[in-house]
Design goal:
The protein is of the alpha/beta class. The protein contains eleven helices and 17 strands. The strands form three sheets. It has an eight-stranded mixed β-sheet. A seven-stranded mixed β-sheet has the order 11-10-9-12-13-15-14, sandwiched between helices. A two-stranded antiparallel ribbon has the order 7-8. Strand 12, helix 8 and strand 13 form a beta-alpha-beta unit. It is globular. It binds nicotinamide-adenine-dinucleotide. The site of nicotinamide-adenine-dinucleotide has 30 residues, from helix 4 and helix 5.
């Protein structure tokens, strides 16, 4: 298909760009397509307009990019997209299971919209899995942030004035972000333990040299695609009692526990925070979905009786350059897949089916429909 590709600039709070100049160059050279980039799109991630121009792109104002393009890429900057009456395809990354309100202005537009965070986590789709690439960076950054806010050091230090014991880092939720956090905290010399409701994660935790805290009786569901499912109140109570002791002893807690499309499970309540020592730190990566800690405020640092709680699901934005490079590769691999599908006229492709949200401005994705209902 002879697309004209548009790349949009994100809003002020989003420094990443979904496509970097190297990828633009690859699209132009490989597919001989025209690429138009909104002026300043890459600046906050560290990519200048000049680099995009050198890659072969044309720089334009937002309204012109939207008008002239037939296939647009962005993270979640939807402003102005409904101004055009032409049929267009939009490829984005907007957590539509949780933030489905963002879709409402786009209903009854002429957009086919794909959100790449709903790509199934299969081996075929691994190269497009932006949740994994972003989660890895977030897990790393969470430890660095925790170490920075913590009022001591992570490794054991032997000094002339005595020996300092290593910090204890507790990771709640050992998915992609949690495992990267374990690896980073270990590298910094901390004593690391971790907890997850998925039994399968125990082996991964132990293989990274951390202790796995086991709580029997978790609900698992083979149809959930490897994700966790909501747990019963009884299980959450039992879990709370067992991990509370570890929370009280921890210097840094990094919580990453999430369930797609649901409010994040509450794992740390106010009384647990009050048992932690002064100077301890909680980094809550689930803040955007309500947070794992009762005291979390999204996007803020709360000081509760000397314990600092940072609620931030977007620490990856502090690695905007690298995050944009990884996103760009994930987007490009999806785009290649889309072209392939169109060429072979393959219907019922599971990757496309998983992440196609709007078809001609109407919600077609069953998971999003169920969520809205
Ligand atoms: P996520 O961000 O949705 O959740 C993070 C972690 O929180 C998960 O490990 C989850 O089990 C855990 N969690 C949920 N409720 C909890 C609770 N009450 N207490 C403690 N922990 C809780 O998940 P993710 O990191 O994106 O990964 C989810 C799954 O997808 C994992 O099984 C992972 O191995 C799998 N995955 C597969 C592929 C692939 O096959 N290509 C790629 C990436 C991830």
């Amino acid at each position: 298909m002879n697309y004209i590709i548009g790349i949009l600039k994100e809003s002020m709070e989003e420094p990443r760009v979904c496509m970097v100049p190297d990828t633009v160059k690859e699209i132009i050279e490989k597919f001989q397509l025209k690429v138009i980039v909104e002026s300043g799109a890459g600046i906050s991630a560290g990519f200048s307009d000049e680099e995009y121009t050198n890659a072969g792109a044309q720089m334009s104002a937002r309204s012109e990019v939207i008008q002239a393009s037939s296939l647009l890429f962005c993270i979640n900057s939807f402003d102005g997209l409904t101004d055009s009456m032409m049929k267009k395809t939009l490829i984005c990354f907007s957590n539509p299971l949780f933030h489905y309100n963002q879709l409402l202005p786009l209903l009854n537009s002429h957009l086919d919209l794909f959100s790449l965070d709903l790509i199934p986590r299969t081996s075929k789709a691994q190269s497009m899995d932006l949740l994994s690439s972003m989660a890895s960076l977030s897990g790393y950054k969470a430890v660095i942030k925790g170490a920075e806010l913590y009022n001591s050091v992570l490794p054991m230090l032997t000094t002339a004035a005595g020996t300092i014991r290593p910090a204890k880092v507790l990771i709640l939720g050992a998915g992609v972000a949690g495992l990267q956090a374990i690896a980073t905290a270990k590298r910094l010399g901390a004593i690391v333990s971790a907890f997850d409701v998925r039994k399968a994660s125990g082996e991964e935790v132990r293989s990274l040299g951390a202790k796995f805290i086991e709580v029997e009786g978790a609900a698992e569901n083979e149809t959930s695609g490897g994700y966790a499912v909501e747990q019963s109140t009884e299980y959450l109570q039992l879990q709370k009692e067992l991990i509370d002791k570890h929370i009280a002893e921890a210097s840094i807690v990094i919580s990453t526990a999430n369930i797609p499309g649901k409010i994040a499970p509450r794992l740390i309540d106010k009384s647990s925070v009050e048992r932690m020592k002064k100077g301890a730190v909680i980094i809550d990566l689930a803040a955007d979905q309500g947070g794992n800690c009762e005291l979390t405020q999204n996007g803020k640092i709360v000081n509760h009786k000397g314990v600092l709680i940072l609620g931030n699901s977007f620490l990856v934005r502090e690695t905007a350059y690298t995050a944009s490079q990884l996103l760009s590769t994930n987007y490009f691999n999806f785009f290649k897949h889309l072209l392939e599908i169109e060429k072979n006229d393959l219907s019922n492709d599971p990757i496309v089916e998983g992440c196609l949200i709007l078809k001609d401005g109407k919600i077609v994705n069953e998971r999003v429909k169920a969520q809205i209902n």
